[in-house]
Amino acid sequence: AISLDGALDVPALEAAVLDVIERHEILRTVFPDSDTGPHQVIQDAFTSLEYANADTREPAELAREFASRGFDITTQSPVRALLLESTPQHHTLVIVIHHIAADGWSIAPLMKDVLTAYVARSSGRAPEFTPLEVHYADFAIWQREALGSVNESESVLGAQASYWRETLRGAPELIDLPSDRARPLTQSLSGGHTAVSLPAHTRIAVEAVAGSNAATPFMVLHAAYAVLLSRLSRSTDIVIGSPVAGRGHRVLDDLVGMFVGTVGLRTTVDPGSTFVDVLRTVRSVDLDAFAHADIPFEQVVDVVAPTRTTDRHPVFQTMISFHGAHPTTWDLPGLAVRAHEITPDIAKYDLQFTVVEQTAEEGRGYEASLTYAKDLFDTDTAESFAVMLETIIETLTAQPSAVVGDVDLAGRGLRALPGRPAGDALTLPELLLRGAADPHAPAIVDVAASATLTYGELDRRSDAMAFALIARGIAPEMIVALALPRSADYVIALWAVAKAGGVFLPVDPAYPAERIEHMLTDSGAVLGITRGEYVAGLPGATSWIELDAVEFTTEIEAAHSETLPDAPLEFDNPAYLIYTSGSTGKPKGVLVTHAGLAAFADEQRERFGVTAHSRALSFASTSFDASVLELLLAFGAGATMVIAPPTVLGGVELHELLDEQTITHAFVTPAALATVDPAGLDHLEAVVVGGDACTADLVSRWAPRRRMFNAYGPTEATVAVTISDSLVAGETVTIGGPIRGVDAMVLDSRLHSVPGRVVGELYVCGDGLARGYLGNPALTAARFVADPHGPEGSRMYRTGDLVREDRARSLVYLGRADHQVKVRGFRIELGEIDAVLASEASVHSAVSVVVGDGVDARIVAYVVPAHGDVDITALRRHAGTSLPAHMIPSAFVTIGAVPTTPAGKLDRAALPAPLWEAPSGRSPEGSDEIAICAAFAEVLDLADADTYADSSFFELGGNSLMATRLVAAIKERT
Asked: In what residue span(s) does the Carrier domain sit (predicted)?
């Protein structure tokens, strides 16, 4: 738009506009379609000047409306002009040109020609333009002949196509910036703009850094923008689009036309690099890219072949454009002229950084802005990006040797999420006894055993067993293995170990003998408690107490009259030892102290509303630290613990148990809860999920008629460290904020706080941190790191989980930063599975992945044979000798080699899809077999139900939790 102040000669202006359209053929070219495709037709100048009165509305508003009107370039000239009159002495000329006919660099020759023509026409004569040496059509023909075709390897375009194919190979197809909304299926292109303040002193600093590094100001700003995008996206591989003038010949300088091209600038940004290092990388990238910029971007897209979708721009979703200074004001006879750009509210990209050099009259700084997609970002989010970009540019141009990952973008230094004060610490026996205030209240209902124990009975029986343990030398720091399924016996034994001052180690008797032997040997357990039926399957040299042995029952009965001495426990003594999956192929033991137990128990009691009248479910496997949650949920409030039979995994059986036992409070993993119908469970006051990601669908099913909470926490930090507020259907599912006695921090790879809503790794600190990994000081030092933000000697635990804060500063869980996964609530190191599989003689190497999520999550193992073929049945048996059932892959796929990316990393996208179906089999016979096979097909999502009569549900990809759905599906059919 051009502001015209003074006595305007309107007829002269209209004539001048027509003169310019006549001068530049491209402004009077249409592109009609035909059988052979669109072609150009040059017409006579016919565009006339439109007029509008702007005395009651802002000219900028009218100009924006005029600019937003579309073009039909098959029949209409690609240019139109509007003259707005605010007063007789103030006019605004708006010229809108379709991008097919002009680029940003066309504005300068266009303005020059319009003003030249106006001066001539206002003097009563025709303009005397310097003749154009070429027209745009001539350039197009020359370009086509000079550059050749991308299909000709020896041509310019052929060589450039090869360059871009290699340069962009393996590049991320999408940059994941912290957005306020999910990306829509189709871009609306609705955009907003926010200013980036880069005054004169900043420009001086930018130019100084450029000069001392043989770079250009554009390169410096590109490097700074790449640092911002890297920090926001937590990625080191950044692709940014940039326009290229495409006017490499002097004869094109005065020509209006679309010469600009677009290149994708792919840069590696190491957060540990200095800004000078990043700038050197950017300089090399930019020079190479600009040397290969003749190829049209559309052909680059064809060559690179990214996934094409309507929800984003291909190859890159961010853009940077830099424009040199050019005159914006002119003095004509009787007229003051000022040009200013109309910025339409359109965003072709997620984020675009635009920089224009200012003239001396304008302040000699940079006029800069960020254009953002309103589909993704709110205004305040874009404004925060602008502030971060200003900070990066100011900081790194002042200190080019500074490390780019150390620039403080959080704005307030450390952005810790503090929990409430922990309150008084208690040891586990003190905590358990606090809940036993009423000795006549029911403490345990063991459904499988049809047994009920009061708190008084539980106290007396565990006292007696504790005497037996003390007599055998059990004291603080000594580990006692509990090889029992969840049952009253297990709870009594746990209380007894705690009262004796020992450390309890849960051992699932159903685990493979090799895994149990490792746990017992690695832990150095001095004693074990079990029942006679399990002794034969318990390897190793551990001495075992058999609860049902006559000698022991006699010993216990004799001890009932004794008074148990207080165990000499300290808060930093370990309370329990739990083994979790380890990447080396062997599980690792996590030693958790008493220090954080009371705070966690108090948090649960208050948050979930547990009272002495509550009935809390015990459903978790004893080898899962959620069993500690259940223990403290009930006994921390003097409530009744209802122990589910070991055979109940979910589905109808779990629903019946919740209903028949009038459960009021339950912790259930999302995968198991997804198999249960919430109907008819109105007495269930609170359900807590955890151990895996909770889906919005699960919340919509379960939250409406009760309070529903999402608990999060690693084994290494006393079960849980954050708990959400009561979840609401339709809202974002969060893991909430820190519980009592816990501080949480979202940090980047250099342990700096990330800005709000930016993805980072979650670190936690507080009294609840475990002592570490038993017998593994190196791993302990790697995961329990010094807290640079806390008092000297303080520690924090690196969870390995990626999170971001929402606007309310609740945490949203996003997944793992490493190769750990969660399947059915169990934390699994896929490397442990790979190591076990690769130890089989017929396997050269193996890589495991998880497909699906929630209840449908399944482990798939890809194996490379050492020689010949791999016997999958034998390999499955081999896995079963070392791995628990939840870690045995549901499918095995034989591959020739593990696919890798150009960077040498596993290329997960190149792994073949698993074949869940059996290769062949007998067709079902009779109504029962037909019903079962149909249920197989439904639950396992198999294509055909006619060949599975002799197939194993588990070999077809099923797991024990999916079996609960299978039972329900069979019942529907029989």
From this structure: 923-974
Task: Let me know whether 632 and 659 are in one domain.
Answer: yes
Per-residue pLDDT band for 960 (boundaries 50, 70, 90) equals low
Nearest to 229 by CA among 149, 163, 174: 174
Please tell me the total count of domains within the chain.
5
Tell me which H or E stretch contains 159: helix 156-167
d(CA 358, CA 328): 10
List of E strands, 8-89: 29-30, 41-42, 49-53, 79-87
Is residue 878 a part of any domain in this protein? yes
Question: Which residue, 472, 474, 532, is CA-closest to 504?
Answer: 474
Whether 423 is covered by a domain: the verdict is: no
Backbone angles phi, psi at 323, to 5 degrees: -130, 135
CATH assignment at residue 206: 3.30.559.30
Q: Are residues 351 and 453 in the same domain?
A: no
State CA 607 to chain mean position distance.
28
The pTM (predicted TM-score) of the whole model is 0.79
Do 660 and 648 meet the contact criterion of CB atoms below 8 Å apart? no
88/215 same-domain check = no
Provide the 3-class DSSP secondary structure of residue 586. Answer: coil
List, for residues 737-776, the tens digit of each pLDDT value.
999 999 999 999 999 999 888 989 999 999 999 999 999 9
Contacts (Cβ under 8 Å, ≥6 apart) of 306: 173, 314, 315
Owning domain of residue 301: 154-180+188-246+258-327+341-406
d(CA 628, CA 506): 10
pLDDT at 356: 93
Q: 843 and 956 share a domain?
A: no
786-821: pLDDT as tens digits: 998 888 889 999 999 989 998 888 999 887 777 667
Show which of 137, 164, 199 is a domain's final residue: 137
Residue with tokens 């700038």: 279
Q: Is 364 left (phi over 0), alpha (psi -120 to 50) or beta?
A: left
Residue 36 has pLDDT above 80, yes or no: no
- Asked if 938 and 969 count as a contact pair (C-beta separation under 8 A), the reply is yes
Euclidean distance between CA atoms 310 and 212, whole angstroms? 43
Diameter of the chain measured on Cα atoms:
124
Residues 401, 540: one domain? Answer: no
Decide if 963 is inside a domain: yes
Tell how many helices (H) and how many strands (E) occur in the chain: 26, 41
The CATH number assigned to the domain holding 654 equals 3.40.50.12780
CATH number of domain containing 117: 3.30.559.10
Lowest-confidence pick of 717-726, 756-765, 931-940: 931-940
Residues 452 and 373 in one domain: no
**Cα distance between residue 387 and residue 410, in whole Å:** 11
What is the rounded CA–CA span in Å between residue 277 and residue 396?
12
Mind giving me the DSSP string for 881-912? TTS-GGGS-SEEEE-SS--B-TTSSB-GGGSP
Give the number of other Cβ atoms within 10 Å of residue 67's Cβ: 19
CA distances to 541, 548, 574 from 502, in Å: 19, 22, 8
Question: In this structure, what CATH number is given to the domain that contains residue 904?
Answer: 3.30.300.30
What is the C-alpha to C-alpha distance for residues 785 and 775, in angstroms, rounded to an integer? Answer: 17
Same domain for 388 and 513: no
| 8 A C-beta contact, residue 883 and residue 515 | yes
What percent of the chain is predicted at pLDDT more than 70? Answer: 94
Residue 587, burial from CB neighbour count under 10 angstroms (0-12, 13-18, 19+)? buried
Residues above pLDDT 90, as percent of the chain:
59
